[in-house]
Amino acid sequence: MFNPFSRIDAKSTLKQLSEVNSKLMKGAELLTDVEEIDVGTAAKQLIYEEDKLTLYHYKPSADKACGVPVLVVYALVNRPYMLDLQPDRSFIRNLLNLGLDVYIIDWGYPTQSDRYLSMDDYINGYMNNCVDAVRKHAKSGKVSLMGVCQGGTFSGIYSALHPEKIHNLITLVAPFDFATDEGLLFNWSKSMDIDALVDAYGVVPGNILNDGFLMLMPFNLNIKKYVDMLDVMEDKDKFHNFLRMEKWIFDSPGQAGECLRQFVKDLYQGNKLAKGKLKLGNRTVNLGNINMPILNIFASADHLVPPAATKPFNDLVSSEDKTLYEFQGGHIGVFVGSRSQKELAPAIAKWLIQRDAPAPIKAKDAPKSAPVAVAKPVAVKPKAAKTATAKPVSAKPAKATVTAPAKPKAVKNAVPEVFKAPFKKTTKR
After folding, report:
1. 357 pLDDT band (50/70/90 cuts)?
2. Which entry of 66, 130, 149, 259 is annotated as an active-site residue?
3. Termini Cα distance of the chain
4. Mean confidence (pLDDT) of the chain
5. What's residue 230's pLDDT?
6. Residue 68 lies in a domain
7. 202 inside domain
8. What CATH number is attached to the domain comprising 54?
9. Banded pLDDT at 372 (limits 50, 70, 90)
10. CA 255 to CA 326: how far, in whole Å?
11. 149 is catalytic
12. Contact of 149 with 332, CB cutoff 8 Å
């Protein structure tokens, strides 16, 4: 009878078991020393709050190279400190070091009192108030919006409804055309009974959605990462970095039921945004009203928001200055991957600086008719404009293509040498 254990090298097996045991013991010692995992440590100041929402202004870390402030809008389903996860892997710190004036919205944690908040409340209410607060704080007539994932979708909608307040629009791994069948999330959402879920919970618990996200890649996200953890348990810094990511993954806010209901039914299931049929309050969202410069960034290996859901955005807007940028990586790697630290933040800062306006108006010099009042957007039919493509940057300067780029205006503050060369033109779509 064949003995399956006859070919096992006992000495080698015992050695490996001993090494694993040693790592586990070292990891246990490190865990006992952990009191709190520090995340989101870049210095910032609270400048506005409303209900659960808080708006922060990051402390500058370099001479200002861009006169128009940047407002970061994160998704509702996760916490925004992903962008400042740790000092050496901080998307926010990179932007600050490159001279950008950065603000960020923290949506907070909804409770049952927020169950009836709608997309209209979030976009035309909270977002609009934050944009106005940034304009006032920075003494700037307009802001540049930078939306991440669902926050990018919200930023596109907001820019279509309030184009007079937006100088530039940057979207990162954000879905706009939900017709694609690529990716499990899009397939699941199309058949989800969201009415039953919202009616049952009111505010849908974050762990329910989080469990769904983990099941999109069950082996990698539920087993493999914990096996790989053994390789870093003896290294304090790497082990703490792993714990920071784990904290972010499982720190999932609940979702206001009515907002989630509309997002799933009107976007995932009805694709109304791309069709020009989405309504917020009594207004229809027409992406053709977006006429400011846009930088649309997608990740080539994104398992949550496939490129097919992001790329069509450039064809739905009327902007003539628009750039499509491909990042070689995944949905999370865009912000915390080692390549993204060297590539993406510099490319974004360069793009913004080239499209900057004069430095903010000083209060004493501000004209009486400063553009603060809300104006109704002018309906503009989308043009079949050509879309530019951009190649990712590695060690070399970023290569990108733009259509009819606007001439950069002079900024009083010094501009780093890395930004002085314009994007190079390549093949147009």
Report:
1. low
2. 149
3. 66
4. 78
5. 64
6. yes
7. no
8. 3.40.50.1820
9. very low
10. 30
11. yes
12. no
User: What is the spatial distance between Cα 20 and Cα 216, in angstroms, rounded to a whole number?
Assistant: 29
Its pTM stands at 0.73
Q: What is the pLDDT of residues 106-136, one digit of tens each?
A: 999 999 999 999 999 999 999 999 999 999 9
Domain assignment of residue 19, yes or no:
no
Q: 1-33 pLDDT, tens per residue?
A: 555 555 666 666 666 655 555 555 555 555 555
Within a domain: 256: no
Structural tokens at position 393: 């940057």
Say how many domains are in the chain. Answer: 1
What domain range includes position 322? 44-186+272-360+370-419
Residue entry with tokens 């992406």 = 287
Q: Which residues pair with 298 in a beta bridge?
A: 326
